[in-house]
Amino acid sequence: MVLAVYASQSNRSRGRRFSEPPAPTRSEFQRDRDRIIHSTAFRRLVYKTQVFLNHEGDLFRTRLTHSLEVAQLGRSVGRSLRLDEDLVEAIALAHDLGHTPFGHAGQDVLDACMRAHGGFEHNLQSLRVVDKLEQRYPAFDGLNLSFEAREGILKHCAKRNALLLEAAEPGGVAARFLRGGQPSLEAQLCNLADEVAYNAHDIDDGVRSGLLELEQLEEVPLVRRYLREALGEYPALQGKRLLFETIRRMLSAQVYDLIAASGTALQEAAPADADAVRAAPPLIRFSPEMRAASTELKRFLFAKLYRHPQVQETRQRAEQVLRDLFELYTADPQQLPEDFSGAADTPRACADYIAGMTDRYALREHQRLTGKTLF
């Protein structure tokens, strides 16, 4: 496929932090994708959860399955818009590498523990994983990904952290957070594919868990429309087939809306190249109607699922596990593995180690160090 002029071009990449000769059979973005897939942090995603904890069921989404779903959605839209699919896939597969065990509960408690030491942001941690914490190569720390992949991984960044990154890498991946501007179209696409994926699979997991009822979802116009459409075509449809068909239609509608609205925005803006994209407003977007519908769905999930008493109860125990681990490790760094125990910045080393844990490993470590079983 011939890429659009506004797509990221692998042969025009801004390069890597450490110079390497080109791969003989792969583009720079293919190389990024392959390094991510073979990383230790990527394999750990299989035992890191989204909403439900790892022990609560084998069929609930994990960070790994979520990342694969984001990559699939991103590639489908990227192909229609003639973007670089390999870069889309690389960003999608790496965007959650810095996520803690126990989903957002883990991020919140680590941020609280690190408040006096620079805080904790999972997007920044994902960049830290690919820039520093992966230790696979003799010549450098991290995976030495391309600028474009790293730019896409850093989806959000607080100003204080952006200033630190900019000081270490002037004009680098944090510059846009200080000067304004956007990342590549491929990065913008991954941000929205992430949103589409987690809205859909949280509905699926919520109903599967019994915390949501299909009837409740009729409160949400976006779901109600495709639920009734499915029943109009298949009046006898019920149970999980009705749920899956509703989600499938909803996903398709969001994808087609994203393609159409973004295509129109790109046609109107007519960016000459990938750098012109960075100086433009966001060009990968939903239509205003779909943006409003998606926002309403997110509000519903927040109120009815993420704040459900059962989810909150397990969240509190998960927070206790990580809070205890942070306190124990900072008090006695020799409990950390050798790669972390000798670090000059002990709190950051503890946060790095805890963030890299899977759900089940965090529980085992907590039981080992405290003798308590919280789950």
TrEMBL record:
Name assigned to this protein: Deoxyguanosinetriphosphate triphosphohydrolase-like protein
Family assignment from sequence similarity: Belongs to the dGTPase family. Type 2 subfamily.
Annotated region described as Disordered, given as residue ranges: 9-29
Entry keyword Hydrolase: yes
Domain HD residue range list: 63-199
InterPro entries with a match to the protein in the record: dGTPase, dGTPase-like, dNTPase_2, HD/PDEase_dom, HD_domain, PHydrolase_assoc_dom
Pfam families from the UniProt entry: HD (PF01966), HD_assoc (PF13286)
Keywords: Hydrolase
Highest taxon in the source lineage: Bacteria
SUPFAM superfamilies: HD-domain/PDEase-like
BP-aspect Gene Ontology terms: dGTP catabolic process
Originating organism: Roseateles oligotrophus
Single GO term (MF): dGTPase activity
